[in-house]
Amino acid sequence: MKAVSLVGLVWFMLTVLVVGSRLLVLWQRTRKLPELLLGLAMLCSGFLCFAVGTAAKLLLTGTPALRSSMTGVGLFVECFGQMLLVAFSWRVFHPKSKLGAAFGALLGAFILAAFFGEVLSGQYLRYSDSLVSTGPFVPLGQIARGSAPAWMSFECFRFHAKARRRLAIGLAEPMVVNRLALWGAGIGASAVGYAFTTVHRLAYGLGLKEHVWALTSVSMLGMVSAICLGTAFFPPTAYRRWVERHAPRA
């Protein structure tokens, strides 16, 4: 099961690295904000934070100051990425809505406040050691960071429902509509992973790495996310044909 967990994590990280890098290359051509926000969000919250966090775990035998610094940097990068994801959801789905802007600002403030709560309480170190976390800061931090992909997934599926109605009368492309569902499922799997991690922390006070079954479960969600996001950006020809064949006709 440990091998499965490792495969799922590596697969997810590589997929996010490729997709995020491609979005940044696209931004260099278009110079549009959504591509920049989403590309940086995926690289920060899906690749860099895992890379730095893994390094912190490997440095358990190093100096406490080095382990503390690496863990803090990894957490900051993750929070920054999720705040960028919130900004993307606002910019793409509610660019002219004051309510949407206020909700996005609220989520961003929640993520930032939770980050400072974890750091100032010292509980952020529980992400790299095997001690039981105490207080509400670690679960709150996980809920705060999970709120970003949860909001984006909700908006993707909401917009997908509208796009399907347009598809039914010939006003949308089948593959474009399908990509909305893939993005919703891929980002939604990440949100479910945060929810699972929060429940596990509340139940045991420990990180996922202390229970192989828990780590494997979240790793499988990472694989689902990687498959959905990878298919959205690099759909195989057979998959494209399947989508076209099963699309409703006007």
What topology does this entry show?
Elements: H1 2-30, H2 33-58, H3 64-93, H4 98-121, H5 137-168, H6 174-204, H7 212-233, H8 237-246
Report on this structure.
With 250 residues, the protein is mostly helical. It has one domain (2-246): Rhopdopsin 7-helix transmembrane proteins, CATH 1.20.1070. 82% of the residues lie in helices and 0% in strands. Helix 1 runs parallel beside helix 7.
Shape: globular
Order of helices and strands: HHHHHHHH
- The DSSP helix count reads 8
Distance between the termini: 48 Å
How large a portion of the residues is in β-strands, by DSSP E? under 5%
Mean pLDDT: 91
Q: What is the second-level CATH architecture?
A: Up-down Bundle
Count of distinct strands? 0
CATH topology: Rhopdopsin 7-helix transmembrane proteins
The CATH C-level name is Mainly Alpha
Secondary structural class: mainly alpha
List low-confidence stretches.
none
- Main sheet makeup: none
Features:
globular; mainly alpha; Rhopdopsin 7-helix transmembrane proteins; 8 helices; single chain
Summarize the structure.
Helix content is 82%, strand content 0%. With 250 residues, it is mostly helical.
